[in-house]
From TrEMBL:
<keyword id="KW-0255">Endonuclease</keyword>
<keyword id="KW-0819">tRNA processing</keyword>
<dbReference type="GO" id="GO:0006397">
    <property type="term" value="P:mRNA processing"/>
</dbReference>
<dbReference type="GO" id="GO:0006364">
    <property type="term" value="P:rRNA processing"/>
</dbReference>
<feature type="domain" description="DRBM">
    <location>
        <begin position="154"/>
        <end position="222"/>
    </location>
</feature>
<dbReference type="GO" id="GO:0046872">
    <property type="term" value="F:metal ion binding"/>
</dbReference>
<protein>
    <recommendedName>
        <fullName>Ribonuclease 3</fullName>
        <ecNumber>3.1.26.3</ecNumber>
    </recommendedName>
</protein>
<dbReference type="InterPro" id="IPR011907">
    <property type="entry name" value="RNase_III"/>
</dbReference>
<feature type="binding site">
    <location>
        <position position="117"/>
    </location>
    <ligand>
        <name>Mg(2+)</name>
    </ligand>
</feature>
<comment type="function">
    <text>Digests double-stranded RNA. Involved in the processing of primary rRNA transcript to yield the immediate precursors to the large and small rRNAs (23S and 16S). Processes some mRNAs, and tRNAs when they are encoded in the rRNA operon. Processes pre-crRNA and tracrRNA of type II CRISPR loci if present in the organism.</text>
</comment>
<dbReference type="GO" id="GO:0008033">
    <property type="term" value="P:tRNA processing"/>
</dbReference>
<dbReference type="GO" id="GO:0005737">
    <property type="term" value="C:cytoplasm"/>
</dbReference>
<feature type="active site">
    <location>
        <position position="117"/>
    </location>
</feature>
<keyword id="KW-0507">mRNA processing</keyword>
<dbReference type="Pfam" id="PF14622">
    <property type="entry name" value="Ribonucleas_3_3"/>
</dbReference>
<keyword id="KW-0540">Nuclease</keyword>
<keyword id="KW-0963">Cytoplasm</keyword>
Length: 222
């Protein structure tokens, strides 16, 4: 699976893959054609977390819950998921609005990571959990052993250490936007240091948005 054509070949229903690649900005410009990938992303996020949790639970039977949670966070994050998207050349096939494309949407790490979750959701609907497991085994599970060798601190912890090592106060996380119904909320959070916004992140809850903001801040600082 070295490119999108090979990814496409996994699907019996190519329309599901097309929807997984459809950003909400494109839908706003092309109403009544098809829905965005947000529902598939919601499903894919849950399946991804379940399969990664199951895999590391079985690989490390003697490790406590805290270790497993930290390891999962080091696997399921924006950087890793965006890396999968880049390897599969997903950005080139995204359906984006003109404005989103001009704003660099095809290279946006957070957008690419969300799209990979949508692809996972679509693959599950189309082919079932075994095919999703095979996909993750190839593209994500191969990193588990290497990740387990290193510090498993999450993005917020690493960012705080980096900022305070420079003699600055700990980062603050500020919710700048909240949308969606109660069962499908979306949050945008800015990470702020000394009244300066370093980066922002979007997530399905405040904690996820904070982690994504911290990841983006680390990417810009390192």
């Amino acid at each position: 699976m070295k490119n999108l054509d090979e990814l496409s070949s996994l699907f019996a229903n190519r329309e599901l893959l097309t929807q997984a690649l459809t950003h909400r900005s494109w839908v706003n410009e092309n109403p009544k054609v098809r829905g965005s990938n947000e529902r598939l992303e919601f499903l894919g996020d849950a399946i991804l977390e379940f399969l990664v949790s199951k895999e590391i639970y079985e690989r490390y039977p003697d490790k406590p819950e805290g270790y497993l949670t930290a390891l999962r966070a080091n696997l399921v994050n924006t950087q890793n998921l965006a890396g999968i998207a880049e390897k599969l050349k997903v950005g080139a096939k995204l359906y984006l609005s003109k404005g989103e494309e001009e704003g660099g949407g095809r290279e946006n790490s957070s957008l690419l990571a969300d799209t990979v979750e949508a692809i996972i959701g679509a693959l599950y609907i189309d082919q079932g959990v075994i095919k999703v497991y095979q996909f993750l085994k190839l593209h994500l599970f191969s990193q588990i052993s290497e990740k387990a060798k290193h510090d498993l601190k999450d993005a917020k912890s690493r960012l705080q250490e980096l900022i305070q090592a420079k003699g600055k106060p700990a980062p603050r996380y500020v919710v700048t936007h909240e949308s969606g119904p109660d069962h499908a909320k979306s949050f945008i959070v800015e990470v702020v240091v000394e009244n300066q916004a370093l980066a922002s992140g979007q997530g399905k809850n405040k904690s996820e948005a904070e982690q994504k903001a911290a990841e983006m801040a680390l990417k810009s600082l390192l």
